[in-house]
Amino acid sequence: MNTTEPASHKPRFLRYLAYAFLLLLILITLLLWQTPRLIQRYLPGWLAEHYGLQLTLGEIDVGLRNPSLTLGATALLDAKQQPIIGFEQLFITPNLQASWQQKGVVLSAVTLTKPVVQLQRLADKKGDVRLNLTDALATLLSPAPSPKPETASAPLLVDIASIAVTDGHVRYQDQRKESEPGWLPPLNLEKVALKLDNLRTEANHPTAYQLNAAINGKSSLAAHGKLDVMSGMGQGKVSLKQVELTPFAPLWAPYLKLDLAKGHANAEVEYQLKEGKQGVLWQLSKGKLTLDNWQLKKHQGDEFARFGQLALSDLAVDGQKQSIQIGKVTLQHPLIKATLNPQQELDLADLLIEQAPAKPVKGANAANEVANNAAPKSAQQTKAAGNGKKHGADKPWQWQIKQILIDKGDLTLTESSSGKPQARQLSGLKLALGPLGSKGEQPSKLTLATQFNQSSPLAFDGQLTLSPFTLSGDINQQGLPLTLAQPYLADLVRIKVQNGLLSSKTRLDLATTAQGGLSKLTLQGGLDVNGLKVVDRADNQRLLEFNTLALTGLTYDGISQQMRIKEITLNKPFARIEINEDGTTNLQQLLLPQPAATKSTHATAGSKASDFRFTIDQLRTEQGNLRFADRSLSQDFVADIASLGGQSRHISNIPGQRSDLAFNGKVDRYAPVTIRGGTNLLVANPILDIAVAFHNLELTTFTPYSGTYAGYAIDKGQLSMKLHYKLEGNRLEGDNDITIKKLQLGEKIKSDQAKDLPLGLAIALLSDANGVIQMNLKVKGDLDQPDFSIGNIFWDVLGNTLSKAITSPFSLLASLADGTEDLDELPFLPGDPDLTPTQQEKLVKLAQALKDRPKLSMNIRGKVNFNEERPILQRQKLERVLAKLTGNQADLDLLEQDPALQEALAQAYEERFGEDLEDLADRLHLDEESTALRAQAVILLRDQQLITAKSLRNLAMRRAQNTKEFLVDSQGIAPERLFVLDSQVKEEDKEAKVILTLDQ
User: Hey, which residues does 352 pair with through a beta bridge?
Assistant: First the structure.
C-alpha cells in the first residue's frame, strides 16, 4: 500500500501547478491590460505634482500575441499649455527572451512617428542661456542631494536592434531682440528621418546611424556614420545643401554694415571623434564648402560685391594637432565695386563696425570650463581634468591652404583724386596663389592675369611669403592708354594727352623685416611708350610727340633711393617751343596756378624729397624734330630742327657727374646743326660746357626778326654759327662765331621797334671780298640777376657790334687790317699837300681793307688849319715872288746861305715899301747885314702876300687828290670807289688833314 500513495499525489501536484500557472497568466493578462490605462490616468498628474511637467499622454496599446508597445499622440507642454515636445506615435517591439537571457532591455525595434520639437530661446538670465525646454525640465534635471556616495555599478544593458524616427519636425525661434548677440531667425527642420541600427549600451560598441532633414523647406541636411552612445565618440559624414544664408544676417549684423541680397551654401565633411590620453580627439576631413550666387549690398541698397561661387575643398581640421588644412579655395566670377574719396579713404572700410574692447573673462578658461562641464566626461577625461594639466591652451593653431584660385574676377575702383569721379576696372581677373600657411617663411607661387579697363593686359608671375612678408616676381603690362592720366593732369598743366600706349616688363622685389619695416624694394626691367601725342589746350596744336620711347635697363632701389636707366631711345620725337605775342613762352604757361599749400604740406613734401639719385647711361634720339616759333614779331618766325639724332651719356643729378652730348640735325631740312659738349643742369651748382654749330642757315627765314628790329626784309643770305657756352657757378660766358654769306637786304618793312641804322653800310663794312661777314660775339651774364635772359644778352652784344661798325667804321677796318689805330683821318704837315711815308703806310692798310670790302666806297675830304696854315701859304707865295727875281727856286730857310736870295729879298722889299733895307735897319736899330734885319723883312713881305680862302681850299683839295691818286695809282683801288669831296674852309678849322668816310 505504501508504494501506491506517492503515485496518487503526483497528478494532483501537477494539476495544482497548472491551476496556479493559469491563475498567474490570468493575473498577468489582467495586469498588462489594465497597466496602460493606469499609466495614462495617473502618470501625467504624478509628473505635474512632483516635477511640474505638463504632459498629455496618448493611448497606450500593449500587444500580447506579438509583444509590442504602442504609445499614441503625446506632448510635453509649457506653462502656457503650448507643446514643446510631442509625437504622433511611439512603437516599441521588445525581445523578451533576449532580455531575460542578457538581463537587460533588448528591443527589436523602436519607431517614432512625426515627432515635433518646439524650441524657443528666452531672454538670458544672468548671462545663462535659457530655452523653453530647459525651463520646463528644470525641476526634473535639478540634481538631487546624495547623502551617501553610490557605489559605481555597471550600467543597465540596453540593446535596440533598430531605431527609426520618421517625418520629424524641429522648430527654433529666438524670442529675444534682433540686436541681441547670437540672435537667429526662425529655423525649421522638417521631414526629419533618423535611423539607428544595433544600438547597445556597451563600451566601444559602434551604432550605425543615418539622418536626413529639410531646413526651412529649401535646404537639406544629411548625415550618416557610426556612434558610440556610451562615450559619444564616433565617425561619419555630414552634408548641407542649398542652405539659404539671408536669414542668418543678424549673425554678422554687429560686425558688418551690409545686406546679403541673395546667396546659399553647400557643405559636407567627414568627422571622427575618439578618446585620447588627454581628452577627446576630433578630426574633420574631406570637407567641402561652397557659397553660391552671393550678392552683397550696402544698407542703402547699392550692390558692392557678388560672386558666382566660393568653393573650399579638401578641408581638414585636427583638434589634437590644432591644424587646419584646405586643399583649394576657388572664387568664381567675383565682382567688387569700391570708391576712394579725395581723402584716399576706401568706402568699403565703412562696412566694418568698430567693436568695443572685449571685457576680461573671469577665470582663465571660463569658456572651456563651461564646455567641459556641459559635456559628459569619460574616465580618461576625468583623470586628465583631475591632474589639472594644461595642454594645447597656449599652442597656436597651424593652417595651410594649398591653392587659392580666382577666375573671371572684376574689380571696379572709382576714385576722385582728379576732382572728378574716375572708374578704373580690372576685368577678367585670374589669380593662382599657393601654398599658403601659418608657416610664413614658406614661399608661395603667385600668378595673376587681368585687363585694365578691358584693354590693357596686366600679368604677374612670382611668389610671396607671409612672414616676414616678401613679394617678388615679373610684371608684364601692355597697351595702357596714357589718356587715362588726363583727368589728373587737367588742373596741373595746360596739356591734353590725346594718344599713347604704355607697355612694360619689370621685376619687383619687396621684403619687410620681422617688425614690418621695409627692408628691400627694387624694380628692374624696361618700358615702351608708343604713339604719344600731347597737345596744348590753349590752341589745340601739338606740343609733344614721339613714335616710340624705349626704356631699357631700369634698376630702382627704394631703400637707397637710387635709380639707374641703361638707355632711353626716342624715335621721331617732336617738341614745340613758342614765344607768344606778349613775350611769354608756351612752356611758361603750361603750369596752371595752384592753390597755396600749407606749411605742413611743404614740410612733408620737403622731407620726402630727400636724397633721390638717378643716372641715365644713355639717351638717344632718332629722326627728331624741334620746332621753334616766335609770335611776338611783326611776322611769325618758325624754324624746325629736323632729323635730330644723337645721344647724351651719363645724365644724372649726382653732384660731380657730367653728361656728354653729341647731337646732329638739320634746320629747315638742309642746314646742318651739331651739338657737342657736357652739362649737368640737375644739380645745385649747374655745369655747362656746350658747343653748338649751325651751317648755312637760310637768312630769309629770319626776315621776321630783321623786319621787326631792323626794318628790312632779308632777300638773300646764309648764316653759320659756332656757339660755345660755359657756366661756372652762376656766371655764364659765351663765345659766338658768326659767319654770314651773301647777305642782301630786301624791301623796307615798317616797324615801331626798328632802329634807324644804315644797315647797308654795316653790311658793306662787315662783308669781305667774297660777301662773307665774320663776327665774334662774346657774351657774359649772371644767372642770379632777375632780368637775366641769354637772348637779350646776345641781341645787345650784336646790336652794339653793329652800332660800332656804323659809328666807328675805320676802327672796325683797322681791326680787320690787324691794326690798332684809326684809319679815318690822315694828318698833314702844315702847308704841305703831299703824303708822308707814315700816311702812305696807313693808306696801304686801308687799301687792303677796301679790297676785302668791295661793296664799300670811300669819301675823301681835305682839311686845313685856318690860323696856322695861312702864314705858311703867305711865306710860300713870297718864296715864289723871290724865285721870279732870282730865276731860281727860292727857299727862305736857306736865306742866310744864299746871297742872290738876299739881294732878291732887298729888291722885293724896296719895290713893295718904297724904301730900302737900310731905312728899315735905321728904324729898327739893326745892323744892315744882320740876320734879324732880313728876318724882319721876310715877315713884313709875307704879311703883305694876299692869301684867300680859295688858296686854303686849294691846299685841302690837293691833299684829297693826292690821297686818291695814291690809292688808285699805287694800291689799285678802282677810282669809281673813291670820291673827293669839296673842301669847305672855315675859320674854326684847326687841323691839317684828310678825313675819310665810308659809304656803300
Answer: 256
- Tell me the C-alpha distance between 508 and 506, whole Å: 7
pLDDT at 363: 44
DSSP 202: S
For residue 952, give the H/E element and its range: helix 949-965
Write the CA distances from 597 to 135, 315, 600, integer angstroms. 69, 55, 8
Cα–Cα distances in angstroms (integers) from residue 239 to residues 123, 187, 235, in the given order: 31, 17, 14
Q: What percent of the chain has pLDDT over 70?
A: 85
Residue 836 in contact with residue 1000, Cβ under 8 Å?
A: no
Helices (H), 440-498: 486-489
- Paired residues of 105 in beta bridges: 158
Residue 807: which pLDDT band, with cuts at 50, 70 and 90? low
C-alpha 584, offset from chain centre = 30
- Kindly give, in sequence order, each residue whose CB lies less than 8 Å from that of residue 596, ignoring residues fewer than 6 positions away: none
| DSSP symbols for 248-289 | GHHHHTTTB--EEEEEEEEEEEEEEEEEETTEEEEEEEEEEE
Which stretches within 557-597 are classed as H helix? none
Selection from 816, 792, 833, 804 nearest residue 953 by Cα: 833
Task: Please report, in angstroms and rounded to a whole number, the separation of the first and last CA atoms in the chain.
Answer: 198
pLDDT band for 794, please (50, 70, 90 cuts): low
3-class SS letters over 801-842: HHHHHHHCHHHHHHHHCCCCCCCCEEECCCCCCCCCHHHHHH
Sign of the torsion angle spanned by Cα atoms 965, 970, 971, 973: positive
Nearest by Cα to 920 from 929, 945, 881? 929
What crossing angle do the helices spanning 899-913 and 931-943 adopt, rounded to 10°?
Answer: 50
Q: At what angle do helices 837-852 and 809-816 cross, to 10 degrees?
A: 90
Q: Which helix (DSSP H) or strand (DSSP E) does residue 482 occupy?
A: none
- pTM (2 decimals)? 0.72
Least confident segment among 171-185, 262-276, 315-329: 171-185
Grid coordinates of 531: 604713339
HSE-CB for 876 with a 13 A CA cutoff: 13
Q: Which of helix, strand or coil describes residue 210?
A: strand
Using an 8 Å Cβ cutoff, are 118 and 132 in contact?
A: yes
Calpha distance 567→920 (Å, rounded): 108
Kindly report the length of the chain. Answer: 1000
| Local structure of residue 184 (DSSP, 8 states) | -
Contact 545, 573 (CB under 8 A): yes
Mean pLDDT of 658-686: 86
Rounded CA-CA distance 847/129 in Å is 126
Q: How far apart are CA 684 and CA 688, in angstroms?
A: 13
C-alpha cell at 429: 581677373
pLDDT confidence of residue 528: 95
170 vs 267, 489, 947, CA distance in Å? 21, 65, 155
* Residue spans of alpha helices (H) in 333-463: 366-374, 379-387
Phi and psi at residue 903, to the nearest 5°:
-65, -40
- 865 contacts 989 by C-beta, under 8 angstroms: yes
Stretch 852-869: mean pLDDT: 85
Residue 881 reports pLDDT greater than 60: yes
Residue whose C-alpha cell reads 583638434 in the numeric block: 319
The angle subtended at Cα 370 by Cα 365 and Cα 373, nearest 5°, is 120
| CA angle, 574 then 631 then 760, to 5° | 110
**CA–CA–CA angle 401, 403, 408 (5° rounding):** 130
How far apart CA 248 and CA 255 sit, in angstroms, is: 13
Whether the Cβ atoms of residue 440 and residue 473 lie closer than 8 Å to each other:
no
Residue 689 CB contacts under 8 Å (≥ 6 apart), including other chains: 677, 678, 679, 725, 726, 727
d(CA 977, CA 621): 53
Cell of 620: 638717344
Q: At what angle do helices 809-816 and 790-807 cross, to 10 degrees?
A: 100
Please compute the mean of the pLDDT values over residues 25-37 and round it to a whole number. Answer: 61
